[in-house]
């Protein structure tokens, strides 16, 4: 999660919402990224989406069996769904996201019968640090 | 929707689940695509995602204000969310998808307080044709 927090900090420095993610297989980091929606002009370029696309490219498969995802914020509905499509084994995340989250908030994707692969979910990892990054970022933008 | 159905048929011919989408602005087609998850080894490469990313690239903005999306199948949770992030104005779709849909099924993304832009939604456009394409495709795969 330290690496994911580093990616979140780098995203903030680029003026992006500070969220970072890392994708791990067999103890090795396959891909890591921060949010790049503004830089890439791509509404789907959330950190989770970027690490999943990169890992799928590296492994040559749209299914990332045995891979675990670490992300600093509760995934949104889009990312919760792509995590399921990619067959991610374990999802570790930091801060909860009552405003946009799709795991424990909103449509709670993994609780739906329309979700056909549910990862093991471990919330609250380095929650305080991940949350502080976001709070500082949005406080700065309101100045 | 005829163009979207053509993209769905082309997807089936490539062995992909037959879903097609077209993105329109001011009466002009900005982008059109069929599902390419297998070909691109990308779990996010649904037709809707591909046309939104391409249009965002063309317009140089992650927000597609004033754009309308036509798709042959009810969008899943991932696509429902990216449609919202992209600020799509109107969503026209064909067949309902009780198995994986995220608009009128599952987490019903647009009914959630975690969804901050809700498009106008017009379901059931050329529903029979879109549904037949999918039925024929999956019947063929069970042989």
Task: Describe what this molecule looks like in 3D.
The structure is a homodimer of 143-residue chains. By secondary structure, the first copy, chain A, is an alpha/beta fold. The first copy, chain A, has one domain (1-93, 110-136): Cytidine Deaminase, domain 2 (3-Layer(aba) Sandwich). Chain A has five helices and five strands, in the order αββααβαββα. Chain A has helices at 2-13, 37-40, 47-59, 77-85, 127-142; strands spanning 20-25, 28-34, 67-73, 90-95, 120-122. Chain A has a five-stranded mixed β-sheet with strand order 2-1-3-4-5. In chain A, strand 3, helix 4 and strand 4 form a beta-alpha-beta unit. The longest helix of chain A is centred in the last third of the chain and has 16 residues, at 127-142. The N and C termini of chain A lie far apart (29 Å). The model of chain A has no long low-confidence stretch (mean pLDDT 96). The A-B interface holds A 37-38, 40-45, 49, 52-53, 56-57, 59-64, 76-82, 85-86, 98-102, 105-109, 112-116 and B 37-38, 40-45, 49, 52-53, 56-57, 59-64, 76-82, 85-86, 98-102, 105-109, 112-116.
Output the CATH homologous superfamily of chain A.
Answer: Cytidine Deaminase, domain 2
CATH fold-level name of chain A: Cytidine Deaminase, domain 2
Q: In angstroms, what is the radius of gyration of chain A?
A: 14 Å
Query: What spatial form of chain A do the alpha-carbon principal axes imply?
Result: globular
Number of strands of chain A: 5
Helix fraction of chain A by DSSP (H/I, runs of at least 4): 25-40%
Strand order of the largest sheet of chain A: 2-1-3-4-5
EC number (chains A, B): 3.5.4.33
Cofactor (chains A, B): Zn(2+)
GO biological process, one term (chains A, B): tRNA wobble adenosine to inosine editing
Subunit structure (chains A, B): Homodimer.
